[in-house]
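ok so for the tutorial part 2 we go from a plain amino acid sequence to predicted structure tokens. step 1 is just haveing the sequence, like this:
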Amino acid sequence: MTSILGISAFYHDSAAALVVDGNIIAAAQEERFSRKKHDPSYPKAAINYVLAEAGLTLGEVDHVIFYDKPFLKFERLLETYLAHAPRGLNSFRMAMPVWLREKLFLKDHLARSLRAVDKGFCADKLLFSEHHFSHACSAFYPSPFEEAVVLTLDGVGEWATTTVAIGSGNKLEIVKEIHFPHSIGLLYSAFTYYTGFKVNSGEYKVMGLAPYGEPKYKDLILDKLIDLKEDGSFRLDQSYFNYASGLTMTNNKFADLFGQPVRKSEDEPLTQFHMDIAASVQAVTEEVVLALTRSLAKEYDIPNLCLAGGVALNCVANGKILKDQCFKDIWIQPAAGDSGGALGAALAVWHQELDNPRVVQLKDSMQGAYLGPEYGQQEIEQALKLVGAVYETLSEEDMVEQSALALSKSKALGWFQGRMEFGPRALGGRSILGDPRSDTMQKTLNLKVKFRESFRPFAPAVLREDVAQWFDLDYDSPYMSLVDTIKVGKRLEMTAEESEKFGVDKLNVKRSLIPAVTHVDYSARIQTVTRETNPRFHALISQFKKLTGCPVVVNTSFNVRGEPIVCTVEDAFQCFMGTDIEMLVIGRCVLHKQNQDRALIEHHQENRKTRLD
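step 2 — the prediction. this is what the tokens look like for a chain of 613 residues:
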């Protein structure tokens, strides 16, 4: 038996993954345990979890691999500073102590952390992958393809920002690269910063905001900021950006180009200008990605495409790639960001380094991304008693029936079942569910449950067998990685007055039979649910369909703004009690809000307000 521990850490979204004899045993982000969103720290709790899941001690692990090479990143830092000196001195002075203290001598730092668990840990077990190679491995090795083109797009790894690899059998080779500072990920992050959202976490808000605007600045971006070639390669004009040498993403020249200053915070009002900017950078991103994929399909004549890296979380662009049909099939790593690098690095050791064969699964080998902690029924009941919960334990059939009935009555339902998901999406393991037919569900979930911006869309979880009847998609999308549009027959005609609305006013127009999951451009980020991958979630949606005729439910992550998705029973109960979620189902335990201790509800609501403030 050969066991491999993969680690990603020290930048954002730290994680650990464990692979045994080529099988993915467990993977989880540190944030779920530490409760610090996008936690970049050494993933101590995540490592402890994946080892426990496999029943292994650290001493029994054969290889430990880190997902990138810090020396190469340090080289980039130094060369970038020298190229821009003396500009960027403040950035350099801030970065250098951290690098010298923690990152440059990362092997020693990791060895010390691992020896704190196992005094006999041998540093010779430590290996280092390259950042983009880890991403590419995370996309190709679990995919259902024997051969594929692998495209990785993100902000920056060591030097690479965009890579193309060819995967065949158990081997993967990077054949093309675009290097820092030219990066489609950093371009998108620059606009994330410019529109007032947080870099490395707010990019999905820009994507969600884009349909409210018009891409009025697309040509300006293509003319001034990015030189895009026919084959998809590109260069950014660095005179508009500050990320290579400064402490901000953009500079005054960037703001002057668009005629408005940076939106300073998420508390400032969003205007039509910001919506048009979001629409413009989204349109440019899609054009870059399509230029790349069309060129790669033509050059390599391989029908399959795998995607990873932070830009692969742009499910709108992914949907455009699928519709474009330059590749027959695509597969996207659900943990496409840095957390997935831990898994990719571990798989790289097994297949690339140790030259072990690869068994290609019919769907994929990610097990639905359900790779995190699971709690047995007895554990759940004990935990609920300890936190003072009032609950009843039902049979499996009654639990599903009551849950579906609550959804049919437009109640917000906390759904905590099976193993926690790996990656940023809740996929029916740690989810908040709702009735997609409700006119008010989208606004209620955003403002009273999630406590976040009202413009944010919600995703539909739909029975795989019914997806083509409701959406312009007939393709597996188990990881909520593809956006497509609502079927014309399910849409509602707008009045002339409704058609003239613009900006956030579009939000109040009922556009389809499932308005809670229909974005203002009739799009939806679709999750297809199968009995094989998640039988309990499939049973719930099937029962909801039986009651309502609708095989779709609203699915959003079980958390509130600024906090990670819940991991434990205690996390779920705290979120349930601190929000307007009306019913919580954990395993076969059912909790109704009106039955809970009123003083306990007020206590949790006050705690939630304190955390958000």
